[in-house]
């Protein structure tokens, strides 16, 4: 057997393992319909088409279809063409990028902001670069932080400490055990997307003050969604001024693409100057930057859209609970329904799509721990009541069909 044959066998074995464990990921081809979200068309493998409703998208507020966003993108596209033409350092910085960064700095009440091609890159690039700027830095990271944060901490070559999820006392023990003179940074999230639970922002800021540590918060699932101007949970709780670096995305509530950090002008300048993930990446197309800026600007005042989304999430949780389905409810906009088995999870997802035109992607290991496989619903303000009724009826029917366990209901 040649080496190339061995390589092919190894790759095939890895894929076969996913199939055997029931967690092989299948992409479905969908076409979003402009102005008609959350409706879409599913192009089936046999070439036929089926009308579906998207229930698992990250376009939490439907801003990817908003006329204000589309108009800004059309205008920029007509003015500048398709791509940016280079990295931010070499011909890829336009007025649209600068306007977007100004909107983001204003949103988070920071001196500056720095835009990346994704929030994943923003996390990875920033967290892996900070030890270059702060020699001897120790990063304290929540064990359930996003993969991008884990990767950035892992690659930075500096010291790291992992604290138990949302366990402030464990974090205190770790901070107290280290050299008080060593530079320190605490990295955590405001909303953890798989369970929808909130990070203890104020308690972590208190510890940061006590131990003279920097704070780094990922608000990816909260920006646009919480706070009077949509700056996130930290804004809602009046804590933005206590956070040193805020990470966010433009691809979820803002409905476009890209990620960013907001911080002091000096911090953003240093990351811009030292982070390879920023320096060597082609910048966002101007039209994307323009659309993102328009979305951020609009959501600073559109509280009604946030309120309607929260109402729809609350109603869906209440109705699923009423049927005894095992949902996780931490009060956020995310609605996870625990299935607990990858095969059943995929079956439920397939049947919802094929039989009811409801698209929700199964979430399996390694995204979530084994035994906690789930369907994760993200109701938006544009999911109409009849859509919600159809989803609830479908879940009730399929839960019985698959003989899955329900919680006992008490009067």
UniProtKB/TrEMBL annotation:
Gene3D superfamilies: Aspartate Aminotransferase, domain 1, Type I PLP-dependent aspartate aminotransferase-like (Major domain). This is 5-aminolevulinate synthase. SUPFAM superfamilies: PLP-dependent transferases (SSF53383). Homodimer. Its EC number is 2.3.1.37. It catalyses: succinyl-CoA + glycine + H(+) = 5-aminolevulinate + CO2 + CoA. PROSITE patterns: AA_TRANSFER_CLASS_2. Belongs to the class-II pyridoxal-phosphate-dependent aminotransferase family. One of its GO terms (molecular function) is 5-aminolevulinate synthase activity. Keywords: Acyltransferase, Heme biosynthesis, Pyridoxal phosphate, Transferase. Residues 51-394 form the Aminotransferase class I/classII large domain. GO terms for biological process: protoporphyrinogen IX biosynthetic process. The keyword Ubl conjugation does not apply. Its cofactor is pyridoxal 5'-phosphate. It holds the Pfam family Aminotran_1_2. Pathway: Porphyrin-containing compound metabolism; protoporphyrin-IX biosynthesis; 5-aminolevulinate from glycine: step 1/1.
């Amino acid at each position: 057997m040649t080496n190339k044959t061995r390589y092919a066998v190894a790759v095939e074995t890895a894929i076969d393992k996913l199939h055997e464990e029931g967690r092989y990921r299948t992409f479905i081809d969908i076409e979003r319909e402009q102005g008609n979200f959350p409706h879409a068309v599913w192009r089936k493998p046999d070439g036929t088409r089926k009308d579906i409703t998207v229930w698992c998208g990250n376009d939490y507020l439907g801003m990817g279809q908003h006329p204000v966003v589309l108009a800004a993108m059309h205008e920029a596209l007509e003015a500048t063409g398709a791509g940016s033409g280079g990295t931010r350092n070499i011909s890829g910085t336009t007025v649209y990028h600068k306007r977007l960064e100004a909107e983001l700095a204003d949103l988070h009440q920071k001196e500056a902001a720095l835009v990346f091609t994704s929030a994943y890159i923003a996390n990875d690039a920033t967290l892996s670069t900070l030890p270059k700027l702060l020699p001897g830095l120790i990063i304290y990271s929540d064990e359930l932080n996003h993969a991008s944060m884990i990767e950035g901490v892992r690659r930075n070559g500096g010291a790291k400490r992992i604290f138990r999820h949302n366990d402030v006392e464990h974090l205190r023990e770790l901070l107290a055990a280290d050299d008080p003179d060593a530079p320190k940074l605490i990295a955590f999230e405001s909303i953890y997307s798989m369970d929808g639970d909130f990070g203890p922002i104020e308690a972590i800021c208190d510890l940061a003050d006590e131990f003279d540590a920097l704070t780094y918060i990922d608000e990816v699932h909260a920006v646009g969604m919480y706070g009077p101007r949509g700056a996130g949970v930290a804004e809602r709780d009046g804590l933005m001024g206590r956070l040193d670096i805020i990470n966010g995305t433009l691809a979820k509530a803002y409905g476009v693409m890209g990620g960013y950090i907001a911080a002091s002008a000096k911090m953003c300048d240093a990351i811009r100057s030292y982070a390879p993930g920023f320096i060597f990446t082609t910048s966002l197309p101007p039209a994307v930057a323009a659309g993102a800026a328009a979305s951020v600007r609009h959501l600073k005042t559109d509280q009604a859209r946030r309120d309607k989304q929260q109402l729809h999430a609350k109603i869906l949780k209440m109705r699923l609970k009423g049927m005894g389905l095992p949902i996780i409810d931490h009060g956020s906009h995310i609605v996870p329904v625990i299935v607990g088995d990858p095969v059943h999870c995929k079956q439920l997802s397939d049947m919802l799509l094929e039989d009811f035109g409801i698209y929700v992607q199964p979430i399996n290991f390694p995204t979530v721990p084994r035994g906690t496989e789930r369907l994760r619903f993200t109701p938006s303000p544009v999911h109409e009541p009849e859509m919600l009724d159809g989803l609830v009826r479908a879940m009730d029917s399929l839960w019985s069909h698959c003989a899955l366990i329900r919680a006992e209901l008490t009067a």
